[in-house]
Amino acid sequence: MPLPRFRYVAPESLEAACELLAEHGDRARVMAGGTDLLLRMKRLPRAGAPEVVIGLRGVPGLDTIRIDDGGLSIGALTLLASVAGSTDVNRLCPALASAARSTATVQIRNMGTVVGNLCNASPAADTATPLLVYGASVLLVRPGGERRTVPLEDFFLGPGRTALGPGEIVAEVRVPPPCGRAGSDYQRLSQRSRVDIAAVCVSTLVCLDRDGSAARVRIALGAVAPVPLRAKSAERVLEGRPPTAELVAQAAAAAAREARPISDVRSSGEYRRRMVEVLARRSLVRSASLAGGAA
Ligand SMILES: Cc1cc2nc3c(=O)[nH]c(=O)nc-3n(C[C@H](O)[C@H](O)[C@H](O)COP(=O)(O)OP(=O)(O)OC[C@H]3O[C@@H](n4cnc5c(N)ncnc54)[C@H](O)[C@@H]3O)c2cc1C
Fold first, then answer.
1. What is the pTM of this model?
2. 181-291, what's its fold?
3. Within a 10 A sphere around the Cβ of 23, how many other Cβ atoms?
4. What are the residue ranges of CATH 3.30.465.10 in the chain?
5. From ligand 1's centre to the CA of 254, what distance in Å?
6. How do residues 158-188 score in pLDDT, each as one tens digit?
7. Is 235 in the pocket of ligand 1 (CB under 6 A)?
8. How confident is the model at residue 295 (pLDDT cuts 50, 70, 90)?
9. Which residue blocks in 239-268 are alpha helix, DSSP H?
10. Strand runs (DSSP E) across 223-276, as ranges?
């Protein structure tokens, strides 16, 4: 299917991009790598496709991975491939590096960005669950240059819907410094191969106290609800206690109860729920062991 006609504009600053987005409203879309946007434009009926595409490639300094106060900042044009191969990301956020490596194909990873993956707001977005367990937030720029920070947990509103307001663009995603004795992990299940979108994905983080009890536990689930979500009741099963095999199994079962999966071409809802339990248990065992705990 051919692309519908559109005007491509390439502003040289984020502020100019925001002004253009505010000026054209619903008739415009921002483009990073275009791996989601251009496909959707081909599929959309003519009336629904944007008339103006605002490319970010002309804005300098957006393709960076920086260490900020011990945490990470990943710019709006940073490729999935750069995140997958970054020494800093592999050291500070190994579950994010693993998710980026698991996303799509080498061609897509060399076009698509982490921020585009988040802004597309698919419930199955591979990088969303690791960023949720690391407590990430997104820095938004609006017309006039004003900035605001939104916790990633509040960013996803529904399939394809985010907290971005009119004229707002994500400048970067920020991850706070890791806790001391931490282990984290990403698990993904797809029906055919990695080119297929995940049928279920789970990320976990376990931070241990000196006495071996879990000071902080984060569990995030993808593709099993309208948005990527934290399984907070499951986290509470483990927090303040040592991550024994029995408690990990209880937490995984609680995570499966928190999932709200639907049945679709990729999987039945019931299968998804069962796989949440399997993947959550596997992931918690791995995170606890990487943190130096038992499980
Ligand atoms: C063959 C194929 C396989 C794929 N496999 C996977 C997979 O396994 N897992 C997965 O999660 N995804 C997959 N995808 C989807 C896609 O590649 C990823 O979501 C990618 O990370 C999107 O990044 P992008 O830079 O190309 O986004 P774009 O297509 O440029 O943008 C995506 C959306 O975000 C908006 N946007 C982009 N940047 C900003 C910004 N800075 N501020 C505000 N809005 C913005 C755009 O307007 C658009 O609505 C696949 C796609 C294809 C074509």
1. 0.97
2. Enolase-like; domain 1 (3.30.390)
3. 12
4. 65-175
5. 31
6. 999 999 999 999 999 999 999 989 999 999 9
7. no
8. low
9. 245-258
10. 229-230
β-strands 214-222, 200-208 pairing? antiparallel
Instruction: Give the tokens for residue 174.
Output: 């920020």
CA distances from 162 to 13, 32, 117 (A): 22, 16, 12
Please give the mean pLDDT across all residues of the chain.
95
Burial of residue 58, with CB atoms counted within 10 A of its CB: 0-12 exposed, 13-18 middle, 19 or more buried: middle
Interatomic CA distance for residues 115 and 31, integer angstroms = 11
Residue 142: exposure state from Cβ atoms within 10 A (0-12, 13-18, ≥19): buried
Residue nearest to atom 3 of ligand 1 (CA): 104
- When the candidates are 3.40.50.740, 3.30.465.10, 3.30.360.10, 3.30.200.20, the CATH number that belongs to 65-175 is 3.30.465.10
How much is the CA Rg of the chain, to the nearest whole Å?
A: 19
* CA 13–ligand 1 middle distance (angstroms): 21
Cα dihedral: 263, 264, 265, 270 (round 10)? -10
Cβ(204)–Cβ(98) below 8 Å: no
Q: Is-contact 138 118, C-beta < 8 A? A: yes
* CB-based contacts of 81, cutoff 8 Å, min separation 6: 100, 106, 109, 110
CB atoms under 10 Å from CB of 290, counted, come to: 17
Please determine, for residue 2, whether its predicted confidence score (pLDDT) is greater than 90.
Answer: no
pLDDT interval class at 88 (50, 70, 90): very high
**Measured from the CA of 124, which atom of ligand 1 is nearest?**
11
Q: What does CATH list as the number for 7-55?
A: 3.30.43
Of 206, 224, 204, 223, the C-alpha closest to 215 is: 206
The partner residues of 230 in beta bridges, in order of sequence, read 220
